Amino acid sequence: MVNYTNRVITAIECCLKNEINWPNRLEQTRIASVFAVGGFPRCIGLVDGTTIRLSQHPAEDGETYFDRKGDYSINAQIMSDDRKRIIYFFAGMPGSCHDVTCLRQSSLWKRVHSQQQHLLFDRGQYLLGDSGYTSGERLVAAFRNAGGDKDKTDFNTCIAHVRIANEHCIGILKSRWHSLKEVWTQLKNRAENQYLVRWVRCCILLHNFLNRRKDDWTEADGPIEVDVESEVQIPAPLTPPLDEHAMIARGCRRRLEVQSECLAYMRNVNGTLAFQ
């Protein structure tokens, strides 16, 4: 059984290897035009984290896999576009790790904070994330605490309306492939962690393949379970970041720019959001 499973995984990886790819300039323009309707004309993707539950306590450092929901799990960072196509993922870190920590371990993060970022983003482009992330030049996150501030509250509402596409994407992914709801195996070592990440990658490859063939999920296929809260590799030790305080300051300025642009577009003459 193990040999057959390995052959299927290898076949999917070989045949569908191009199904997970970062959008090119033409596709980025199309995505941004769609998100512009929601007030984010330079957004080219959405990011969120989810956990993949493990049925058993991992043999190595098992306590680190115990997440806030009381389960053993691994974390998966999912980036998607407006069509619920997954454009990048990073998985394999213990479920107890914060989304920001996991994202900073990815090769995407390292490229964004290097001289290669122009290969991924055009000028002014960014991703949107929830309040669990820290805003940066290329990632705009919702405010963690609006504190009764109307501008912050309205901005968070605008982000939530756009980000629902990512939550639905993750929900459809797990509804299509029930193995991602709970993995019935014990992770005994690093190799088995790598194998699990390959499994996740195959599910994402098939998800994108079906999306490209216009195989839309319908109510007849079952409910979409939304979790409210690419690459195959085991994370290496995090490299020291650039000046952390400078990065946070730039991120705050960037978010204020996007917030101003968004609210100016989305508010009616009476000061309420267009969709309220």
From TrEMBL:
InterPro entries (alphabetical): HARBI1-like, HARBI1_dom
Domain of life where this protein originates: Eukaryota
Subcellular location: Nucleus
Main location: nucleus
Keywords: Hydrolase, Metal-binding, Nuclease, Nucleus
Taxon lineage: Eukaryota, Viridiplantae, Streptophyta, Embryophyta, Marchantiophyta
Family membership: Belongs to the HARBI1 family.
Cofactor(s) required for function per UniProt: a divalent metal cation
Gene Ontology, cellular component aspect: nucleus
Record-annotated DDE Tnp4 domain positions: 47-208
GO MF annotations in UniProt: hydrolase activity; metal ion binding; nuclease activity
Protein's recorded name: DDE Tnp4 domain-containing protein
